[in-house]
Design goal:
heterodimer; A: about 110 residues; mainly beta; 6-stranded mixed beta sheet; 4-stranded antiparallel beta sheet; B: mainly beta; about 50% strand; globular
Chain lengths: ~110, ~120
């Protein structure tokens, strides 16, 4: 079955530091890959996505590249801000058929200090 | 455009009691999902509706959990009777496309504590 493994947190960084959160997956076929973010007290929000190999998703300074050869979708940001403090979830969903459920990793808590 | 609405936001009950959660998806969204998010874990799908039909309920504990989506719009999720391990955040999500592959939009969730 499908599974997502992401880097365990918590991750604590200083403002303007470089961020990497690792994510690897196991899936049949050619899944779409996502990063969702959950700010304190709020629901999940889509941060970025990639639907095929070598695609790069980007949003708000965050980037992730769909690497089929390493089954990875690592999240990066060159300079984090205090406002980026949140829980980040890597997820995948299969294409085709009628079941489009998301399979999530356990989440990584990021805290950015001023 | 209004987002996915859920109520209540918080609920505290004792074990063996019943509880119900309500979700109003984004207008026009055909697909609706209920996820369970236990503390420290990622959300796990409980049930997926396409309009008012069930697509996937393979991970729904059917001896105690039930869900319905009348008229293909609002949905309710019920737990009867609740167990301690049901303490979690229950997330509702909706999606526009009838064929899938679109973005799922999540509500704020209902945080349930079973004592």
């Amino acid at each position: 079955g499908n599974s997502v493994t992401q880097m365990e947190g918590p991750v604590t960084l200083s403002e303007e530091a470089f961020l990497t959160i690792n994510c690897t997956y196991t899936a049949t076929g050619y899944p779409s890959l996502f990063w969702y973010v959950q700010y304190p007290g709020e629901g999940l929000q889509l941060l970025l996505k990639a639907t095929k190999a070598d695609d790069k998703g980007s949003n708000k300074g965050f980037e992730a590249t769909y690497r089929k050869e390493t089954t990875s979708f690592h999240l990066e940001k060159g300079s984090v801000q205090v406002s980026d403090s949140a829980v980040y979830f890597c997820a995948l969903r299969n294409s085709g058929g009628s079941n489009y459920k998301l399979t999530f990793g356990k989440g990584t808590l990021l805290t950015v200090n001023p | 455009e209004a987002g996915v609405a859920q109520s209540p936001r918080y609920k505290i009950i004792e074990k063996r009691q019943s509880v119900a959660f309500w979700c109003n998806p984004i207008s026009g969204h055909a697909t609706l999902y209920w996820y369970q998010q236990i503390l420290g874990q990622g959300p796990k799908l409980l049930i997926q509706f396409q309009n008012n039909g069930v697509v996937d309920d393979s991970q729904l504990p059917k001896d105690r959990f039930s869900a319905e989506r009348l008229k293909g719009v609002d949905s309710t999720l019920k737990i009867q009777p609740a167990k301690l391990e049901d303490s979690a955040v229950y997330l509702c999500a909706s999606e526009l496309s009838r064929t899938g592959g679109e973005t799922q939009y999540f509500g704020p969730g209902t945080r349930l504590l079973v004592l």
